[in-house]
Design a protein that fits this description.
Radius of gyration: 11 Å
Order of helices and strands: EHEEHE
Largest sheet: 4 strands, antiparallel
Number of helices: 2
Structural class: alpha+beta
Number of domains: 1
Number of strands: 4
CATH class: Alpha Beta
CATH topology: Alpha-Beta Plaits
Helix content: 25-40%
CATH architecture: 2-Layer Sandwich
Strand order of the largest sheet: 2-3-1-4
Strand content: 25-35%
């Protein structure tokens, strides 16, 4: 399963921090960013179902914006 999110994360530094924290809080997810995309894409992949709302909420708690891209 793959979920794709649009974010407002601008820097590689912030992306790496968020990526690391998501990997700790949500173990078993493969997380990566594409900051070159205009939507500052976050891709989350897992063999299990992904709780997109929890990921969005967590990113918001970190001070960033995120929304699921359909």
């Amino acid at each position: 399963m793959i979920e794709i999110f649009a974010t407002n994360i601008q820097s590689i530094r912030d992306a790496r921090i968020v990526q690391g924290l998501i990997s700790i809080v949500f173990p078993g997810l493969n997380v990566n960013f594409d900051l070159d995309d205009r939507d500052r894409i976050l891709r989350v992949q897992s063999t299990a179902p992904i709780d997109a709302n929890s990921i969005v909420g967590y990113i918001r708690n970190l001070g960033f914006a995120a929304k699921v891209i359909d």
